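Need the bound structure for S-adenosylmethionine, inputs here:
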Amino acid sequence: MQEKKVVGAVAPSSRFLRKKMLAKIDFSKDLVIVEYGPGTGVFTEEIIKKMSPGSRLYVFELNEVFYDSLSTKIKDPRVKIFHDSAEKSEFYLNKDNYHHADFVLSSLPLAVIPKTVKDEILKVSEKILADQGMYVQFQYSLNAKKMLKNHFRNMNIAFTPINVPPAFVYYCSNR
Ligand SMILES: C[S@@+](CC[C@H](N)C(=O)[O-])C[C@H]1O[C@@H](n2cnc3c(N)ncnc32)[C@H](O)[C@@H]1O
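Answer from helper R.:
Posting the output first, comments after.
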């Protein structure tokens, strides 16, 4: 029960949602990409397929089973997977001498994460985002709108009906 609460999903995301999550990324560039909550890796594997040789991907997954499975499956020198919480992204980027991310892709179930934790995650995400960067978040409702607006000046929202459940994708930036 507790596990279900933290995972916040009944099934992995559809390829339609995956397409929307990655739609704004220009993979021809060398990018630093951060992913929160990869789960079984539906977005992660597609990012790896598309990212340039000079790009880097930092992945944060709290669930031990997902973390173990992903780190066994993915052996790519461009990718680092951490069994740690999303708000630690800045710490691990800085450790590798990266100070900004071009994209932060979040599947975190904001609706069930305690307020203090999600505030910290969004604060850190805002801080690490490059000036021209984008924070992309999917949710199953529009309830995250107000909270995301507290951290990002600009927001566009897309809807994906073909997902279980149907999902909203928030594209946020401070451009
Ligand atoms: C809704 S699932 C999404 C899985 C996958 N990205 C997909 O779309 O199918 C959310 C994921 O976030 C992870 N998670 C929850 N809180 C987290 C946190 N604070 N830091 C990192 N991962 C977290 C959960 O373990 C779960 O794998």
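Comments: Helices lie at 2-7, 15-22, 42-50, 64-73, 89-95, 115-128, 145-149. The longest strand covers residues 129-139.
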